[in-house]
Design brief:
Blueprint (H helix, E strand, L loop, with lengths): L3 H8 L21 E2 L4 E2 H10 L11
Antiparallel strand pairs: 1-2
Length: 61
């Protein structure tokens, strides 16, 4: 879990537009973030495995 202070700091509007820190909406993780789903790779994998993300299914070939 991410520190609450860093999550709150990321929610404030930045002084410059390039300083935006995108964080996972579920756990607050800043790394491994996917913009399309607005969550980190770990939360994405857990939700996709449970079938909670529409249109996403496990690859098999």
């Amino acid at each position: 879990m991410a520190r609450k202070a860093l999550i709150n700091k990321a929610m404030r509007p930045p002084k410059f537009s390039t300083r935006i820190v995108r964080r996972c909406k579920i756990c607050g993780r800043p790394r491994g973030y996917m913009r399309r789903f607005e969550m980190c790779r770990i939360c994405f994998r857990n939700l996709a495995h449970r079938g909670l993300i529409p249109g996403v299914e496990k690859a098999s070939w």
